[in-house]
Design a protein that fits this description.
This protein has three helices and five strands; from the N terminus they run αβββαββα. With 141 residues, the chain is an alpha+beta fold. It comes from Vreelandella arcis.
């Protein structure tokens, strides 16, 4: 396997949470939404179809399980799971909890509004909460 290098923009906009079986889980540094970015730890990929069939299944397993757990934990109205890649071409999947009353509902979060940074204590709390959630999940099945 080649060395995994995280895109510079993703590195600047996120905080590392954990390495799952396939993906690196990153907290998006925008306090407006519970938002995790999953990046398959495979070098040089920009599209889901570039993963093997087994890796595609694992990616969906990780995104789905995490989205379901986050929706329950954060009481969301909707989970947005999406791959875009228009700004950052490195393959990554957004898992975002949405609320009917959030600032940009029903529009997508991408390109709407300005990211609100976490305070130090908010960041610590959100990281701990997400790590606890991640540690309850079994991404192998």
């Amino acid at each position: 396997m080649t060395t995994f290098v995280l895109d510079e923009r993703l590195a600047c906009d996120t905080q590392h949470l954990a390495d799952l079986p396939l993906c690196r889980a990153l907290l998006m540094l925008d306090a407006r939404y519970p938002w995790v970015v999953l990046v398959p730890r495979r070098e040089g990929l920009s599209e889901v179809f570039e993963l093997t069939t087994a890796e595609q299944q694992q990616l969906w397993r990780e995104a789905s399980q995490l989205g379901q757990a986050m929706k329950a934990a954060f009481g969301g109205d909707k989970v947005n799971i999406a791959t875009l890649g228009n700004v950052v071409s490195q393959l990554h999947v957004h898992v975002v909890i949405r609320y009917h009353e959030d600032a940009v509902w029903p529009a997508p979060v991408w390109g709407n509004g300005v990211a609100e940074p976490y305070s130090a204590s908010q960041l610590t709390t959100m990281q701990a909460r997400l790590l606890e959630l991640i540690n309850t999940l079994d991404f192998a099945r």
